[in-house]
Records
---
Amino acid sequence: MTEKTNNTFILNNVINDLIDAEKSLINPLMKLNYFGRITKNKELTEYTLNEIKGYSADSKLPDYRKIGARLYVDFQAGWNSHPNKELPVAGLDKDIQEFCNHIRVYESIREIENMNLKFSEKDSHYELKFPLPLQLLPQIQPFATRLYKSDIRMQVTGARLIGNSSKMMGITETVRTNLLAFSMEIAEQFGYEIELTDYNKQREENNKTILQYMTTNNITTSGDGNIINTGDKAKIEANINISKGNKEELAKYLQENGISPEDTAELVEIIDTEEPNPENKTFGKKVSDWTKKMIGKAVDGGWNVGIGAAGSLLAEAIGKYYGF
């Protein structure tokens, strides 16, 4: 019994944490970091450690941690101050445009989760702000004074990037999706109780799987209701047209994408028995449990949908029904 415990990693606990959107990402990240260390998987260890501790300034930041931004500057003209004037980034020199196009989020996942709690508060007026270093102001000055002409010499005294705070939610959603897709893929190959000796026999190939999910298997949305699951494991493209509260459209869509009539009927029966959380876009326990069961069927081959796409397809469809 002891030997099995020492040489077995229980993946089911990780998946249960990931499928519950209300739970912090810290626990599954810590568990997968441990798994990466005991299996000597450098990619998984580094990825989870960066998300746990935060990325260093000189590290390669994932694209999902770059949030589109607008540039605002403060002017001083004689005795008069002119704060918060928007400056089009496209007018700046090329060497500074790239820096000002995005706010780069280096913080740990715990800090991001805490920020998201503030951003999601009712009537929240929090904005995502990044003050530009003072040494960059001289590079902004020439274009700013050309755009905002004045008879009095105008001096740029400050500048900041402003981003949409709701985009911060996309960071945690992408990390959760990446980890879930990877975990489901590994569960499909090795089961929920992974024998480490068997796993390590294919270490090099498994490293490639980890790298793929952590860097290229992100989910992007284009237009209203389009799901495109990118990466080598992509198996589904769908246009979701489900009106809020329309059970017929929801049932039709699920069955068109391989959910059995019995499983669809089960969801239709329970979906209105509990209230979702529209602010955090999370479902109640019964709907979450049903979703777990469906993803389990994707793993077992009982639902012919790629694992990485399964969770997103369900989340998008149910979210449309709830009006998220």
Note: The CA atoms of residues 175 and 299 lie 20 Å apart.
---
Amino acid sequence: MASADGTQADLILKVATQLFAALGYDGTSTRQIADAAGLNIATVNYHVGGKRELYLAVMARAHLAEKAALDAALARLPGDDPVAAIHRLIDDYLGFCVDNPEVPALWMHRWLSDARDITELEREYVQPLVTAVGAALRPTVESGLIDEQADLEYTMWTVIWSVHGFAKGGVLDSDGRRRAAGDRAALRRFRAHLHLSTHRALGLPGDPP
């Protein structure tokens, strides 16, 4: 019975993640989640509680996935090449968001004031990750490789905003068709642009990889 309960809970979280990512917290109802999972509301409430509890569970799961990816990325940074470390982080972050588009979608809804009554998530989840990246890049700052007029914090946020936007919405081609992460040519072009713009924003020496 526990196994069946676990399977239903996982299904509910999966469906809820998809709906919250597509419609936002405010645009999603418990009824929609239950219907999409093929369950009744009572079963959803039994496994995960109400809509708020379900949203918190979804965001917690998304955070754990992102944190695990970041921890792995930081662990394999080249310690002897600060410039390469910056570009490696860009690639790893872009790769995570492309492989897990629901995560940037969830956060982008919050940027648009979705679930505005749930205020603790940025402080609890986002800020520690940004702080960890800043700490990892401190040797680059201390080495003097970054232009003294560059703003590392805002450059980091520019990467976050850009990657989220591309992973969620892509870009329009000359024919007005949307090209997103699933389009390999668009992804390669975006990656190259992101490396070049970050390299220039920080005034790093040499050419970006």
Note: Residues 167 and 176 are 18 Å apart (CA to CA).
